[in-house]
Design goal:
Layout (H helix, E strand, L loop, with lengths): L12 E5 L4 H12 L3 E6 L17 E5 L5 H11 L3 E4 L6 H6 L2 H21 L3 E7 L23 H20 L3 E6 L1 E3 L8 H10 L4 E4 L5 E6 H14 L5 E4 L4 E3 H11 L7 E4 L14 H7 L7 H14 L1 H7 L2 H11 L4
Parallel strand pairs: 1-2, 1-4, 2-3, 4-5, 5-6, 6-10, 7-9, 8-12
Antiparallel strand pairs: 9-11
Helix pairs in contact: 1-7, 2-4, 4-5, 6-8, 6-10
Nicotinamide-adenine-dinucleotide binds next to α1, α4, β5 and β7.
């Protein structure tokens, strides 16, 4: 990857919040491979997992801490002296936000506010805020989300992410704080927590259990391979204009039911495992991203076809049973029971 001088990887220290989660841990590997030094700052909630970072040792440091804790953030920034911050840490699952919304506001809004204020005080030179396309709400059968689409979040999760975007934007406008906001579509790939559609369906299929599809299964998501998002984040770090928002996506729309069928076919399992369950409340119908701005202005392109990415992802879950077996314990089973049992 070509870089500009300011954020050339060699010797540049990054501070990565939420780096023990799904997208964060994939990004950390990519950043280290590219020559960056990385400090991960992560509270290790149910979704954070040190096994996601197994084998990552060189040019790497881990600090357990909560982004809502100003002193912990301040101390970690002082000790690691980063030039740039990539902010992934969040509560990230829509269904959990419906069962218990408060922690979403606390982590995603208040946590982002505490973090960005400490980063401003510390003189951070670039702050990449990892937002989501869900802040735009839902699309009908036509059209795409552009950076100018109005914020119209539906779930408590999406509302908390939209609110955090506004906090970040206010810092860029008021203080000239060098923040860039990325709004990406649905990621898939290794290390994704099995509460999300693709890993959940792979694991259920592998265990010959029922695959729970919400509503009529016709909701559409726009899927991107997690490493392609990683390269987009590096581009934004190196070339993104402070104060700007960039949408990121792979132009790869799929109906949920078609993804579930594809997984079953790839795994040689019967379609009869599909079971339709009660719909998610206020379930967004369609997400689809116009990512022409980041492609044009930052020269980024995704590289992984869905055919290749989904095959790699299924293979990864099938060869990492221990990883997900370790997760399928108390907290996860309790959550699954709450979210699905009354409807099945
Ligand atoms: P994840 O749930 O897998 O990981 C979240 C990480 O944040 C975990 O390691 C967790 O321990 C950490 N964390 C949570 N609360 C914290 C706190 N208070 N302090 C410090 N660390 C804390 O999430 P993910 O799917 O990897 O998503 C990462 C980011 O990307 C989120 O901000 C999410 O909104 C955004 N996003 C996700 C997707 C997707 O498809 N998964 C798409 C677009 C944007
Ligand atoms: O668009 C980006 C967002 O993508 C991120 O901001 C979120 O952090 C991430 O969780 C994801 O949100 P979704 O709600 O789109 O992802 P999820 O995997 O939960 O669901 C994808 C679709 O599949 C959605 O239409 C709901 C449906 N679904 C999901 C689960 C878990 C089912 O039909 N059955 C299920 O059991």
């Amino acid at each position: 990857m070509t870089t500009n001088d300011k954020f050339a990887p060699e010797g540049t220290r990054l501070f990565v919040t939420g780096g023990a989660g799904f997208i964060g841990s994939n990004f950390v590997r990519l950043a280290i491979e590219n020559g960056f030094n990385v400090t991960v700052f992560d509270a290790l909630t149910y979704a954070g997992n040190m096994e996601n970072l197994a084998g990552v040792e060189e040019r790497f440091r881990f600090v357990r801490g909560d982004i809502r804790d100003a002193e912990a953030v301040r101390n970690a920034l002082r000790e690691s002296e980063p030039r740039a911050v990539i902010h992934f840490a969040a509560e990230s699952h829509v269904d959990r936000s419906i069962l218990g919304p408060k922690i979403f506001t606390e982590t995603n809004v208040l946590g982002t506010h505490v973090l960005i204020e400490e980063c401003r005080q510390a003189g951070i030179e670039k702050f990449i805020h990892i937002s989501t396309d869900e802040v735009y709400g839902s699309l009908g059968s036509t059209g795409l989300f552009t950076e100018e689409s109005p914020l119209d979040p539906t779930s408590p999760y999406a509302a908390s992410k939209a609110a955090s975007d506004l906090v970040v934007q206010s810092y860029a406008k008021t203080y000239g704080f060098p923040a860039v906001i990325l709004r990406c579509s649905n990621n898939y790939g290794p290390f994704q927590f099995p509460e999300k559609l693709i890993p959940l369906m792979i694991i259920k299929a592998s265990n010959d259990e029922k695959l729970p599809v919400y509503g009529d299964g016709q909701n559409i998501r726009d899927w991107i391979y997690v490493m392609d998002y990683g390269t987009a984040i590096l581009r934004a770090l190196e070339r993104g204009t402070p104060g700007e928002v960039y949408n990121v996506g792979s132009s790869n729309e799929w109906k949920n039911i078609d993804i579930v069928r594809l997984i079953l076919e790839e795994m040689d399992k019967p379609l009869s495992l599909i079971t339709y369950v009660k719909d998610r409340p206020a379930h967004d119908r369609r997400y689809a991203i116009d990512s022409s701005k980041i492609r044009r202005d930052l020269g980024w392109e995704p590289e992984t076809t869905f055919e290749k990415g989904i095959r790699q992802t299924i293979d990864w879950y099938m060869t990492h049973r221990q990883w997900w077996n370790n997760i399928m314990t108390g907290e996860y089973l309790e959550y699954y029971e709450k979210n699905y049992k009354p409807k099945l």
